[in-house]
Amino acid sequence: MLNFISFGSGSSGNCYFLYTETDGLLIDIGIGIRAIKKHFKDYGIPLSSIHNILITHDHADHVKSVGCLSTEFNLPVFTTTLVHEGILRNFCVQKKIKNECKRYIEKNISYQIGEFKVTPFGVPHDSTDNVGYAIEYKDDVFCVITDAGYITDEIKTYINKATFLVIQANYDHEMLMRGPYPLRLKERILSDKGHLSNAECGKALAENMSEKLKKIWLCHVSDNNNHPELARKTVESILASYGIIVGCDVSLDVLKRNTPSGIFSLIS
Predict the structure, then answer these.
(1) Residue-level pLDDT at 267
(2) Which of 17, 57, 61, 200 is a Cys-bridge partner for 130, taking CB atoms 3.0 to 4.6 Å apart?
(3) Which three-class secondary structure state does DSSP give residue 121?
């Protein structure tokens, strides 16, 4: 069976774990190494269950502990050449990835990584590079789209393919505009290389999801410019306006910023 845990989703640190009885993929490691070890112990999951690491981009809240974990457990780290180069330059990553642990991937090429078929695709953001991942396991497609400035045509195709989807709903437009952030930061968030709003997320889902999409998790919800319930209600309302009913046609959850989500058993 396929299982999913979020260990953190937000500017304080992002880390997701997708696993079966015999294989496991860690997606981003933006939380502390001690926190990772504690969470795995609390859930009764041995760290040896992690067989490979996927990285979306080189911002600290996604890569803080990648060097520590990959070095200690000799874990391969898969990401693009540009992201690997960005991690090497990132002063927040104090322990770098060993060369022998680096694995280089290209967008729109599929790779067999353990039990999973993984396809990276481009996601616009103001990092060195950024990718989403479509992860196929048996008949299901688990898709991760985080830190997206806008929804490209390519992203739309992966939303349409997904059985399970983690997608960003970072900010509420009104809260952002009325909030304390300086103008330059607001402009960055609103830009095509910034983040997705609740409304943009909801519209992208409503216009592109297929009937096979069973579960949606909203990720990377801002602490200052959003609220989990607001994000959920906004997306739910937009879906309803397209005739898609949460709880009937699809399940919808909001991932917590700083605490683990619990284990989701993914049954399509």
Answers:
(1) 81
(2) 57
(3) strand
